Amino acid sequence: MNARTKMILGRMAQAIPVVMGVVVISFLLTRALPGDPAAYFAGPAADEASIAEIREALGLDKPLFQQFFLYVGDLARGDLGTSLTTGQTVMSDLAARLPASLELTLVALLLSCAIAIPLGVLAATRPGTWVDHLCRVLVTAGVSMPTFFTGIVLIYVFYYLAGLAPSPLGRLDFIYLSPPHVTGFYLIDAALAGDWETWFGALKQLILPATTLALFTLAPIARMTRAAMLSALSSDFIRTARAAGLGSRKVLYGYAFRNALLPVVTTLGMVFSFTLGANVLVEKVFAWPGIGSYAVEALVVSDYAAVQGFVLAMALLFVALNLVIDIAYALIDPRIGLN
Amino acid sequence: MTDTSRRTFLKLTGGTVGAAMLPFLKTMPAQAQSGGRIVVVSGQTINSLDLHRTGTNRASYQVAVNCYDRLVSFGTKDAPGGGLSYDYDVIEPELAESWTISDDGLTMTFKIKPDATFWDGRKVTAADVKWSFDRAVSAGGFPTVQMKAGGLVRPDQFEAVDDETFVITLDKPSKLTLPDLAVPVPFIINSEEAKANATEDDPWAMEYLHTTPAGSGAFKVVRWDQGQQPVYERNDTWVGGPLPSFEQVIVREVPSPATRRALVERGDVQMSFNIPNKDASELAEMDGVDVYSTPIENCIHCLCPNFNFEPFQDANVRKALAYAIPYEAIFQTAAYGRGAPMWGGEAEITDTAWPRKSPFMTDMTKAKEHMAASGFEVPLSISLGLADWMEPTALLMQEAFAEIGIKAEIEKIPGANWRSAALVEKRLPLHLENFGGWLNTPDYYFFWAYKHGHLFNSSNYLNEEIEQLVDSTLHIPMDDPAYAPNIKRMFEIAFEDLPRIPLWQPALNVAMNGASGYEFWFHRQLDVRPLTTATT
Known about the structure:
By secondary structure, chain A is mainly alpha-helical. Chain A has 14 helices and no strands. Chain A folds into two domains: about 1-85 and about 300-340, no CATH class; about 100-290, Orthogonal Bundle (MetI-like fold), CATH 1.10.3720. In chain A, helix 5 (about 90-125) packs antiparallel against helix 6 and helix 10 (about 235-245) packs antiparallel against helix 11 (about 250-280). Chain A is globular. By secondary structure, chain B is an alpha+beta fold. In chain B, the strands form five sheets. In chain B, strands 8-9-10-1-11-19-12 form a seven-stranded mixed β-sheet, with helices on both faces. In chain B, strands 14-18-13-17-15-16 form a six-stranded mixed β-sheet. A four-stranded antiparallel β-sheet of chain B has the order 4-5-7-6, covered by helices on one side. At the A-B interface, helix 2, helix 3, helix 5, helix 7 and helix 12 of A face helix 1, helix 4, strand 10, helix 8 and helix 14 of B.
């Protein structure tokens, strides 16, 4: 077993208590929510008896302790329960909605990095010039406009006025059928199926929401890149490298940028996790069937199973994400060993 | 070894890609037939294809309406505010060809259309009707409560005499029974298909029908992506009514009202169902978009003072509230003038029209007269789930009540708590409420909203005369000599005691662009069957 496998296994072992804690806390927190799901889901015109019936069917009449052990037992069998709001099992909801959110967030982050990192580097190498000012304006505008506002403005301009964008009707226009489910990422699934028409259809639907999210996530990445590059460029090793007569390209990308990448990757991880949870407003505006709106709707009506399933899925995702970031650290900076 | 596994791997992936390519349908099948499809957007999401299931939400009732048949249906009339509406006074056949009611009103005999078939081709029989009705009265929860409203409570009331004859036996005659058979709940299921998929734990096939409807209705669900869309396809062998004009109907769920508005304005979707009042009033001014705002029958937005809260036990204080409310400002701000005002009516009650205007109007002098007692503080509760109309209403009321010495603090309650707090525990001292009855008679409204202990009587109102009047009027026919006097007396008491202060009758708004034929229904869900293209 090499060092890397050991480290990965070690990190995964560390995640176990975290996940256990999340299970307990999410269970207790959902129960602490005000509201009575039985009364809510009994529907209009329900009487005491039918509410009691539903409470029994949901197992909510049992003591808290017993409910918890039943929940953990189900969890151990891989059963996350059934969501009342959607009428589906939480597992199938997550399987359908998590890829939708991940696809949107990842595309948005790629887009955002493709703009923010070069912009940050340029701004750092030419501080005080128009590039630096442009960077500042873009960043301020991006971060100060709420996503639902940017989303609606983009729809208004590119769909309503110009007619360039496709109907903001979710992941695919109604004329397409969703590609056969492999990963749940439409771009990947459509490509696997060789169905390029659907692939373009899915891509077209992604452009506006991804741009909306990208504008919002641009700010932290560009600012962090600029700051990290500035501090890297003013460090001793860069002066030494320059003094040694290395080419400016080598100095900039080989030494300064590589050192500046560490904080950028850290920020990326944070931005990613933040965006995944926070894109609920973008999901609403673009009718995107994602995980954020799912969680919010479940929370509003005290849909316990769905909220718990969401929290758990997010916890696992973050554990995985942190692992990936740690591995990325080790790849970027050899000084950070794998141990 | 490695070679074999690589080969297996290649085979495997090749297999998957091949299989994935098999249904090489890039687009929806009906795309070729232009005009054969309508796309509707709605802000609501469907959570089940079976209305009888526990936890099925209101939006899902559309599946029961469009995909299943009932024995009977309501007629059609012109709606106030344009478009069409269902007609409560006319009962039409759907699956039943004809029916007779015995002279004592206790036995109803239905003849089922001989050519009616389920989607799988099997003939609809009385046994299917019996099984479906047994299911509705046994499922518990809302379906059972709704069946009970029509006097349908036990399976032994239903009998399949032969394949085409179905008999209902009632414990007492009621004018509500026949209309109650036309509401979405008593829909007729293919019982053979359901029973084949039932289990010991699930004798009513709730799990199966939850995702797989089995009916005889005008449309089949060919696709259901939860949280995104149901796709309906026409059943060409439908005999329940005139064959719908559209072959395919897609109901896309778009949560943001702004997005829905952009879509319908551009004409990329033909209909936006249940739009906000503000959009309705603005879209109505635009060319190309037709807006229908139908006042919802038997539904009134009310302010409810709770009799458990000491100051509201004084009738004068309740009247002071009724005189202090700035009705017109609220109607314009919260409803954008959509719906019907429910204030400033005649003092004398001469007919049984309902909903009717209360005799109250904004009059601060009278309000202050009635409010001789010293002021008090009270929370004014609203539901966050209904904040679009409740919040502006509450703000304007807060301002007006302050003038007569009532300091109202606005309390916003999340959706999940609202039902428990307002309706089940009935603990909110002053709150807004919007009950609407499916069966369109005033006594039915009073039964739910004025009788003590009943769910929508969130004011804890108790009046012996109302109790007795409602009980004696609820089931008698509307042409009974006692009916009109009883109803008028109920109105008098309601306006004197004011457990519910009427504000306005809300409207259901629908915008259409390139389609017509919209019909309003009391259940406030979309009936896609009568829709047609705008040109025809």
